[in-house]
Predict the 3D structure of the following.
Amino acid sequence: MTPENDPLPLLLKFLRFPTISTQAEHAEDLRQCAGWLSTLLQSIGLHSEVLPTAGQPVVLAHTPRDTAKRTVLIYGHYDVQPVDPIELWETPPFEPTLRNDRIYARGSTDNKGQILAHILGVRETIAHTGTTPVNVIFLIEGEEEIGSPSLDAFLREHRDDLACDVICISDNGMVSDFHPTLSYAMRGIAAMEVRVKGPSVDLHSGVYGGAVMNPATAAARLVASLHHDDGRVAISGFYDTVRPLADWERAASAASPISDADLLAQTGVTELFGEAGYSATERIGARPTAEVNGIGGGYQGEGTKTVLPASAFFKLTFRLVPRMEPEKILDLAEAHLRAHCPAGVTIEIERGHSGLPYFSDPMSADGQAAQRALERVFGLKPSLYREGGSIPILTTFKEVLGADALLPALASPDCAAHSPNENFPVRNFETGIMLNQALLEEFAKVPRGVHGYRGDVPNLDRASRTA
Amino acid sequence: MTPENDPLPLLLKFLRFPTISTQAEHAEDLRQCAGWLSTLLQSIGLHSEVLPTAGQPVVLAHTPRDTAKRTVLIYGHYDVQPVDPIELWETPPFEPTLRNDRIYARGSTDNKGQILAHILGVRETIAHTGTTPVNVIFLIEGEEEIGSPSLDAFLREHRDDLACDVICISDNGMVSDFHPTLSYAMRGIAAMEVRVKGPSVDLHSGVYGGAVMNPATAAARLVASLHHDDGRVAISGFYDTVRPLADWERAASAASPISDADLLAQTGVTELFGEAGYSATERIGARPTAEVNGIGGGYQGEGTKTVLPASAFFKLTFRLVPRMEPEKILDLAEAHLRAHCPAGVTIEIERGHSGLPYFSDPMSADGQAAQRALERVFGLKPSLYREGGSIPILTTFKEVLGADALLPALASPDCAAHSPNENFPVRNFETGIMLNQALLEEFAKVPRGVHGYRGDVPNLDRASRTA
């Protein structure tokens, strides 16, 4: 191996491509980066191609197909976020710099460092054993940061090439510094906007105030009606399909190294608040929510304007956990809002995007394999973590390929992904290379035909997806 | 009398001055108009001067002082609102046009037509009797449409010249078409803005939602806490000082020709709503309110942005009725909001402007004189009307001159004051000239030393005013 093929120089080379997918002027950078990546994958013995999509190309690579082996699909992306605000970067975002044992560059953690660790892990395995214990497919796209608009069609078109037993993704964060973490669930989402309409125009609040329901007051009353004082969502039927947390989940949550003090420091609030009976990590990952993302009505400027506004609005997103169906939740919310709408105003409801919750059982055979690999490499039992956000592509993978995704994290909590001075600790990079080797070995131990998904989350089987 | 001194040609001449006080380029127009007005007042036998202020000049005129007579001060203004949107005017705003028996021009109702009717009423009285039954003072300012910033100092400086027994103002609307109306109360006002603060920055509503109190939700809960479901304000102590409505007031309200259908048509709401136990006109004029003039927080654009906002705000104004003190009400509101503030957020409260409620007893000797004058001229008992809005200068008059203001209306409900195609029915103008003559005769019948104010509204005696 020549020095320029050492892990760190390769990562620095990868990071020099300014692959900002949302900026059209970087299309050639994306194309060159995909080509470079495909050549690298070929150089370690994989069959690799750069395949076109309606948008940026996909790098698709695989080891020789051995039908006697299980198949692991490793997903990642070579595109990155924009660099604004550029003036806050200590060193240029596309001139990767090593300091404090971290690599500073846009994309260092998200996702170039993490996907390259997996690629180099496979290289190590092949170098030491001449083969891989499982078939490996790399699917590395160039549009993750803009919402993967071409991926759905790509998966359907290449369904046969992508057939696999399990999917592995490292595009997520450890719960605390260098603490092994297996994320196994993401919340779903359902969005709606509500417009509360009253008078035909803004009225003088002196001349008419008192005789007319104020739409801003009505909007506030509707928003206030969504929660009980103890933090529970007050929509009738909202929790009907929600599974209670399993004992092992409560134990995993209780063992989480994320402290309330961490959350206070991260958010800047004076005290945490949430649904009674659950810890903060459970509230974030394992319980559904109703959040106001925006509210507005009437005068927004400085000082006073004595209007009684003609209308007001609020935007809601519900975060969903397994067995909650987005359209059903929006139905329940709409019924709640219509039942609670004060006299004298009317409401118009517009539904927004939605996505199913995702759950990949970490106690499945593959889940336990991933846990073993994490423990081998980090020397600690991994935290099992339910994330609060949503990754829609996971349900697409499940729907099209029928395979579950396991998410062993390589990002540090202070990696500054999407922010200035994004960085990736060298230790995480090196550990990621080892983790990949351990993962392939452990996945190989799972009997063929065993899928991770235990089938206890009915709505994940549904093929329905909403825009 | 020459034809150009007939009432209608005089009004058309008055209306041709583009006296927009908020636009600096019209300063000369305002000066010329004040001069023309003063000359007119001199021509009918009054002593008249154009007096400087820090802003636009004031026209101050008076009949010869006869200490045996009572003195009536008639207030009005010669400045007008801007004309935007100019494209909606059917004829140019400063080229007065007669059609449908109405005079169309900016200022035709507000206030040139109404104050000129009073001037020409005095001319008629002098022409027929050689004198006036009461001393008359005209105080006609040029800054009413910009909030009368110079009037307070002017009143204090000219306090002796302005000494009077009663003040008469026609700058308000009839309750319905050509229905005699005596307005006798205006609500006070107290404003505050509340900022609800939570996280230090907007958070990802997936990553943190559920564990952090959402400031938009907290703002909504605070706003919702301000009212009971039946429309009553829920702030403890809010109504403590409010007088029950007198029987004659409830009778006057019940006899009001303003129907709920009128209010529905004017506001465009589907149904009226307000405090249980009161009619719509009582809710507007005689009961205090808490109104949200603006609310905002989080994402305001199109579509969805999954933020948990760092803060939210709402702007409140309270409309006050006699015996409510603005600062005391703001104290009660602040205590209420602090007591209801949800855990996990903090609130910052900034107090805005405030003004005392105004009440001028229509059953006083002068009030009954005004009622008799209205009934004589219109042939109908006048509606006694409490207005929902606020006119701060009334409390200034009361404070500086110690005199009450009676407000016999000359504007029609569809006069379009402040709007395109402002108009003044010729019938209202001619009736106004007659009304002035009747008012002077009736005010003269009130024994000297009798003031309109019966002293049952303690906080109107207080000299305190807040900015």
Chain A touches chain B through 82 residues (CB under 8 Å). Chain A has twelve helices and 18 strands. The mean pLDDT of chain A is 93. The domain at 188-242+288-355 of chain A is CATH 3.30.70.360 (Alpha-Beta Plaits).
